[in-house]
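re: ur question from earlier - yeah i can do the single chain one, its not a big deal. heres the input i used so u can compare w yours
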Amino acid sequence: MKAKIRGVYSTALTKLLIDNGFEIVQSSLAIKNRFGLSENPAPPDLVVKDRYDLQGVRALGSSDSVSAFQSILQSSFSDVLTRKWMFSVNGIYKGMVVESDEHAFYVDIGEGVIGRLPRFETIAMDEKQLIVHVERRRVGSKQPILTTNLKIVGNYAILAKSSKIGVSLKIRDLSRRAELYALGKSIAPEDWGIIWRESSATQQEATLENEIARLVEKVKLLDENVSQIEAPTLLVEGSSFMDVEFPWFSKKVMDKLRSSVAPTFDGHHFYKSCGGKISSTLEMAEKLLEKRQNTSEVEKSFKEQILGELPEAGSQVNIEHVKLSGVIFHLGEATIENLDDEQVRYNRVMRRDGFYDGLNVKKEAGDKAVSETKIGEWSITTRYFSSNGECKGTYINLNTPLEVYPNALRYVDLEVDVCILPDGTVKTLDEKKLEKAEEKSFISKTLYESITEQVKKILKELKENKQQ
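and the output i got, formated as tokens:
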């Protein structure tokens, strides 16, 4: 399978995928030089790009290539999160309208998935059944955006229902645009237009004709199935999408992969995910390493330059509590009490009344939560105190190791909590949620088993301490 990779994780992932039998195509100049790759303009089965927050990547491609990528990641990184989208991107579904409002129709496209079809779309409805296309817009969101403007996407061209011939604006050669336009006019199927993608610019006419013939076969299959199959169902498969998160341990392994082919600081991928001045300073420092300057001196200078960008004891930071689904809960502002190579300790003050669910205790404005963890540890222990200093209970949250960013403390919540009530009673919460995450392949079986063992270890230690 072929992969195209871009972004801050590109060198490490290129190394990983080459080692696992992938062919790298459309490489950047840096990747070509580092791996000795020749020019390869072939269309990829898998495209991997940075997430906007630089905490991972987004993968789009064939079902087989995305599944292979997921398997490689889960076998290589102990804490990686792989969130596959349930829907087929650019897939065509026969759906059932289940609800509507003044803005949209809500369409069941299968397995309980309800997509949103804007009302301004022109739709031909037969007993509330209709043919819809899943747009790439808002890919990864809980609710897909649908359209009745059907498209069948190929490597070099897109067949578009009731459309005209079009050529990508990225193809600027006027003579080539004219050739593609003329070819499209001559081979477009009835009631469908052809939009030539940028990748078509360098292809032979026979290759493009074969592409259209392959897409036309999908049109025929669509026409045959429309009347025979009941909604909701997938009629024409599109691409698979997966959101990937690289927490603390994953970034560490990425550093090792990258260092095998290029000068790399320990912490490279963490620093890159910080963005801004830290990322740009890292780039300059590693260029000095490429010129064979003294590693320890360059690293010392780099850390001195970024020191003011990172928090220290007394700093105010936000708490980013990331759920396995990818949803981020901002727990509010915290004050760092201690931060060194071994331990992080911070506190936050509750602003509103509420309830500590696992502790069965009332939460009151003015309560103080004091949290601490060790660097690289799979849990954070938080003790809750009333405004007069009385302990209301303790939460031991299982999570990926805490990462300390310029303005935030970030970790991925692994759902399971161990609670210690004011009377000393110990109970475990939400183990089923972790189990479901493993069933959905958000996490690997190895990570599931590791966290289960961590819980047993914590419970054993609490029991032993109680007996002393």
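The CA atoms of residues 342 and 407 lie 20 Å apart. not sure if urs matches, ping me
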